[in-house]
Amino acid sequence: SGYCPQWYEESMLNCCVDLEEVKTKGVTIGTVACLAKCQGLAVDAVYGSNSTVAEFRRVVKRTCTAPSATTTQPTSFLVVSYTRKVIGQTGSGHFSPIGAYDEASDHVLILDTARFKYGPHWVSLPLMFEALLPIDPATGKSRGYMVLGYDGSE
User: Of 25, 6, 42, which is closest to residue 138 (Cα–Cα)?
Assistant: First the structure.
């Protein structure tokens, strides 16, 4: 049987941080990782400052390749926590999944979660990595990326 995503409402996400605080302060990479774990996902969170462009590229390739013949859909997904200004956008810190990788151009497809502001768009992988490096003022650490996964047996 294939994976069936759950439906969500805000109250289901109250396991790591008070939702009223989220509305005023936003979330950090650590909070998003905690929320994902609360929903039963495996999480591998990496701060940009603890990675390299080459390592990030390996993770992008691994998560953006077609599933194996034994699975019908991907079992892991890449989410980036980045600084919008680095890629020439308005705003500051933001989270979005990476939907694809074009090896020929070395670009990633950002599936922006704020579609009212920016639709899906391609960004060079080295520039995306640069956008992971600025310090998040809420944590004093760089932004980064997370591989979220499940075992595919649900």
Answer: 25
